[in-house]
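G., the chain you wanted modeled:
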Amino acid sequence: MQKLTIVIPAYNEEKILESSVKTLLNIEDKIAAANYLEQRADILIVDDGSTDKTWQIIERLNAEISRVRGLKFSRNFGHQAALIAGLSEAVKTAAVTVTIDADLQDDPNKIPDMVSQYTGGADVVYGVRNNRDSDSWFKRTTAQTYYGLLKKLGVELVPNHADFRLMSKRAVETFLQYPERNIFIRGIIPKLGYTTGKVYYKRTPRMAGESKYPLKKMLAFAWDGITSLTVAPVRLILILGVLACLLAVGMSIFTLISKFTGLAVHGWSSLMISLWFMGGLQMVSLGIIGEYIGKMTTEVKHRPRYTVARKLD
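Predicted structure as tokens:
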């Protein structure tokens, strides 16, 4: 008999948190009734610096229901930090952990199937969307493009999987050995090498509240995924540099021919285009390299990923 903990990162989720918790408690009861795991499964909610009444709701639920626990960040540290904090706390007592967002757009009714695969030998079970019909055309297209790009860059990723997953105790412990601050969890988990499984589900619309991932955050998150998992952009700079050198050789030959044929005055456009091209290429190259240097600077400082202000057991 083993214990299950469901970890919920929450940021300004006062409108849906209580109903989500009750739904998950019912699902844990069904898992216990099926004798999959120990009956006293619990829920750990990580308040990622919410500015609404999310923490007050967590406190009230904790006082009313002993199976509800909470962590409160001193400020907003981000979704990935909340997941790591939840996993770090849950692994102390749980044999198996499930992470799911507070809005329950990922189907919580698939958790028993995840647990079933765990008891069958899987250390990691991914929740994978079987379609993206609920997404806008823009979001669906950019997501597919992004997954395709990461695959071409050599990044091992489970397409259409976010952060709805089950992990065994040893999988969580291994994951927590990855110390980087700029971490892209869904790209790290496949690197663990343990036996995996998948459950497929259809994502549902959000019941209330607003998405915590507007376009700006989504783009930043996508860029973090690329730069934290692969050095391909830096290698691309090398390739572009070689191509630029070849172009420069071609332009030099063109300039010499123009000079000897008396057409040098007409080379002004070519010269300006070359200068603009090279200037733009250098700025892009410096920007990409600077991004990696910035991430290295963050890593070597060894600052904490998050600060826990309150804890409810």
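The first helix runs from residue 17 to 33.

Shout if anything looks off.
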